[in-house]
Amino acid sequence: MGSPVPAGEGSPGASVATSTSPGLRPPTRRGTELVMLSFAAGLVTLALILVELNQERSLSLRVLYLGLAYLGLFACAHLAVRRWAPYADAAILPCVALLNGLGLVVIHRIDLAMEGTVFLDGSTWDPVAFKQVIWTAIGLVLFAATLKFLSDHRTLARFGYTFGLIGLVALMLPGVLPGFIAPEINGAKIWLRLGPLSLQPGEFAKILLMVFFAAFLVSKRDLFTTAGRRFLGMDLPRARDLGPLFAAWGVTVAVMVLQKDLGSSLLFFGIVLVLLYVATERAAWVVLGLGLFSGGAIVAWKLFAHVQQRVANWQDPIGRYERIGGGYQISQSLFGLATGGIGGAGLGAGRPEMIPEANTDFITAVIGEELGFVGFAALLLIYMIFALRGLRSAIAVRDSFGKLLGGGLAFAVCFQVFIVVGGVTKLIPMTGITAPFLSYGGSSLLANYILVALLLRISAAARAPQRAPKPKPQQPAIADQHTVMVERPK
Amino acid sequence: MQLTRAGFLVLLWLFVLAALRVVRSDLYAASGLRASGLPGFRRSEKSARGSKAPRQLVVTHGALTGTRISLDGRPILIGRADDSTLVLDDDFASTRHARLSMRGTDWYVEDLGSTNGTYLDRAKVTAPLRVPLGTPIRIGKTVIELRS
User: Locate the FHA domain: which residues (chain B) (predicted)?
Assistant: First the structure.
């Protein structure tokens, strides 16, 4: 499809349609994907070299080996796609590879900056780049496993309620378990500690609940638009049809708010709203949802001290610079972005150690400082291409469940980027949330790789040629058969 | 150092452009803008094809609005069954609802014994009927039509 369309073939739109047509075998475009992956790996290696140079460390062949290892890792993912989803979209995996690779480089770069730092409580900085590499590898294994064992995304729809239940339980688990297994870190009780591993079940619950909402909405969509009573010019569904949806929605958002995980609750609220809108095509739901959101936000602001704090920090970070829990973090992030300016300080030449939580919530601020506006804009565009491809697959796929799930997954990544970048740049109040694929954090990375596998599965279903109909028994042409042709009487 | 810094940014943007190039052909389709709507394209299409043969099936109403399936001569099955070409999940559609098939250069629609019937522009389809270009076919709450 990337090749120019011959004049006789008609419009590009028609050539796209041809790719989903039953008869012709569309190009799988796996070659393009491999080239783009190599490009991404080259860029990541270059970024690593720049960091090492700017930090005045001796360059060795080791850097090259790391780059090749990175390429090898994604080549395995590429082979998995080639084997189990040959018609998947060619742009999604390279975008993810580049984002993840840049994330690794920046995390390594922050490790270098923080090396030898001793914190107030006497602990020293623990380098995390290597851990993140391990998480990436595990993530890619999960990615391949998802592609292998889920050969048709529609099977997920059958387990909608089960997934919803598991998701809710996983979400609540850290809240109800005792402290030694579910410790409170940075004021949020959202972690499970299993031996040396810490997991955030909420990240996985997000995907499970998305599957539930998509399956639920597909099975009940007609009831949403037809049955029920009219109220204020809008057809409201009957309460019993709406019940499970609003129950799950309310419980999820409430749990996240109680766990002080504001970013995730905002993310989840947005995702369900968009799923509702996509399923019913009614703007009224969006209006209703935004109304609910404003109401909920005001109530949360009145009730919770930590929400008030976030809002105050957002309104005037520099005025609250020196207070405890004040605007220090956001101010430092803004200073970093300002230092970066248009062209950036150069990879490895900024001062990310000035920003607290630089390798998780504020990683985009570090990138903004070192790559500047130009690099940061490119990064956002890569996210945009990722989301664009996801939404495109959702439009092209032929079943409603795939449409809803694909749209929801693509939107989730997009919205997450908006929440974290909006927070870092003081557009909206900062709510702690990871930047997908960039930030340090195992659970987020694993969950996002599962998300990518699901999107690739949906895009493969959208682009793959139809299964050939069952072969009919070959019959000789009617004229050759041993029958007498009878002219129809005129 | 300045050079490497700028060089990296240029390469980063090249990656973005390369990715956009990969997806370029789909951009038109995603926005619903058909390049054949542009005068230049239309002329070349007409002269190349001569006649207006239906080339794609477009869903114009219902849950799957915007879906396009291109026609290559093989019959198109419509219904709730998983192996249909167009899978509907509409309470008013039957498992095997209707079939579009090509005979000669024309496309015909026939009803496969559905509960709620198939309508070709208001007329209930009882025997195979020829489908002109742009004529709506209603199946449950879904409306499809053929386009060139």
Answer: 76-125
Chain A touched by B74 (CB under 8 Å): yes
Q: What is the pLDDT of residue A121?
A: 76
Size of interface A-B (CB pairs under 8 A): 165
Mutate to test the interface with A, among B9, B24, B33 (most CBs of A within 10 A): B9
pLDDT digits (tens, 9 = 90+) for B77-116: 888 887 788 888 778 888 888 988 888 788 888 888 888 8
The model carries a pTM of 0.77
- Contacts with A354 (C-beta within 8 Å, 6 or more apart), sequence order: A332, A335, A336
Q: Domain boundaries in chain B?
A: 56-147
B35 vs A343: CB contact, 8 Å cut-off? Answer: no
- Test mutation, A5, A9, A16, chain B, max B CBs within 10 A: A16
Task: Measure in Å the smallest separation between the Cα of B95 and chain A Cα atoms.
Answer: 14
Judged by CB atoms closer than 8 Å, whether chains meet at B5 and A98 is answered as no
From the list A164, A273, A256, A145, the residue with the least C-alpha distance to A210 is: A164
User: Is B28 touching A (CB cutoff 8 A)?
Assistant: yes
| φ, ψ at A230 (rounded to 5°) | -90, 135
Q: Please say if the pLDDT value at position A327 is more than 90.
A: no
Please answer yes or no on whether B41 and A10 come within 8 Å at the CB atom. Answer: yes
At B17, the amino acid letter reads L
Q: Which of B139, B132, B136, B143 has its CA nearest to residue B54?
A: B132
In the beta sheet, which residues pair with residue B56? B70, B147
Q: Could you tell me if A326 and A313 are in contact, meaning their C-beta atoms sit under 8 angstroms apart?
A: yes
Is residue B143's pLDDT more than 80?
Answer: yes
